[in-house]
Amino acid sequence: MCGGISAALGLGGAATPATTAAYHCGRLLSYTLLGAAAGTLAATPDVAGWTLALRYLAALLLIAMGLYIGNWWFGLQWLERGGAFLWRPLQRLAAPLLPLRRPREALALGLCWGVMPCGLIYSALALAATRQSTLDGAATMLSFGAGTLPAMLLVSVGATRLQALLRSRGMRRAIALLLIAGGLWSLATTASHSEHLLHAKASQHHH
């Protein structure tokens, strides 16, 4: 989805290297700031008790992300519809920036990117929140953004053959299965941690 929008925004052959770099820097910065905010919020005393719930949510969203990428289930679209309410005001702010001509315009557009209606971004944010740390949350989202760079850069430079490889059914399914496996592993480890906490509380109660 992001690749298609990037192409529509004129990040193909007409964009200069400086504009392309500024856009992606803004995009990664928007992810990092959102991750820092999510990690900070989850670290507050009132929210810290929901850590296990956040871990379960992040694991389920990771599985949903895999199913989404594999074109097997599109449940994440309801998150995207909700996020559209946040994106609409920013669309009005972003409109004067197009078409992108200068690096500062590209940077500003990239900064808006983090709140676009995208279930993949929201899934990564849930994972960042489980870190319960400003720095760790920021690092999680920065890693997520860095992971999207290869595909997004290919769109920017118009590498048609490599884009086709990344969009091929086999590649999408391989990535999807890895995400689903990661989500299942996260569910299993969280369930094990929950059981350990319950045993520890029961032991303290008996003593």
Automatic annotation (TrEMBL):
The keyword Lipoprotein does not apply. Keywords: Membrane, Transmembrane, Transmembrane helix. The keyword Transmembrane helix applies. The chain crosses the membrane at residues 53-74, 106-129, 141-162, 174-191. Residues 1-185 form the Urease accessory protein UreH-like transmembrane domain. InterPro entries: UreH-like_TM_dom. PANTHER family: HEAVY METAL TRANSPORTER (PTHR42208:SF1), HEAVY METAL TRANSPORTER-RELATED (PTHR42208). This is Sulfite exporter TauE/SafE family protein. It comes from Parahaliea aestuarii.
